[in-house]
Design a protein that fits this description.
Shape: globular
Structural class: alpha/beta
Strand order of the largest sheet: 2-3-1-4-5
Largest sheet: 5 strands, parallel
Number of helices: 8
Radius of gyration: 18 Å
Order of helices and strands: EHEHHHEHEHHEH
Number of strands: 5
Length: 200
């Protein structure tokens, strides 16, 4: 059974989830594990001196649980997909010829070394400050962003996390999140499809 792990990271509201879902729709035997599903409860997330919740840090995430999910997929991607999506069972001789693809999506996936090291390809979506702030303000979060949260926490932490990411992640492909969605999908899909063909 052949497997491929793709990382799609990026800044908040950069288009990570949109690209991941579009890619999943185009690839057979593909599933997504999203980092946002592993946030700790709000009650245990620390607050800084300005009263801002420190969500944009690895310590605000259950990375151990996320790794357990990834390892479960690595052990048996067919069973993992069946449990998640009710995927049709494949005959053993067919499974052995298939390539299973895992998309790991999130804003700090390249900052966590054990996760980062599993990826065959790494894509990072970026958008300008003004666009990012505008998109962020138009979304409703639980809990909601307090006044000044973007400039006081989100953007400074993005810059800090990005510097750490660039020191850790290799072969990082930067994507312009302002580009046409179909164009972004085509770029990534072509490269991933080539990787899948190389596995066979």
């Amino acid at each position: 059974m052949k497997t491929l792990i793709i990382g799609i990271g990026g800044m908040t509201n950069g288009g990570k989830s949109t690209l991941s879902r579009a890619l999943q729709e185009q690839l057979p035997n593909c599933c997504i594990i999203a980092q946002d599903a592993f946030f700790k409860d709000d009650s245990v997330v620390p607050v800084d001196s300005h009263g801002f919740k420190q969500y944009d840090m690895l310590s605000a995430l259950h990375m151990d649980r996320m790794m357990e999910e990834v390892e479960a997929w690595r052990r048996n991607p067919q069973a993992f997909m069946s449990s998640r999506y009710g995927a049709t069972q494949l005959l053993p001789h067919v499974v052995n010829q298939q390539a299973f693809v895992l998309i790991i999506e999130g804003f700090l996936i390249f900052n966590y070394r054990p996760l980062n090291e599993l990826m065959s390809r790494r894509y990072f979506l970026q958008i300008p400050y003004d666009t990012c702030k505008e998109r962020r303000s138009s979304r409703v979060y639980t809990p909601p962003d307090p006044p000044g949260y973007f400039d006081g926490h989100v953007w400074p932490m993005y810059l800090k996390n990005r510097q750490e990411m660039e020191e850790m992640a290799t072969d990082l492909v930067l994507l312009d999140g302002l580009n046409d969605r179909e164009e972004l999908l085509s770029t990534v899909l072509q490269q991933v499809t080539t990787d899948i063909e190389d596995l066979r």
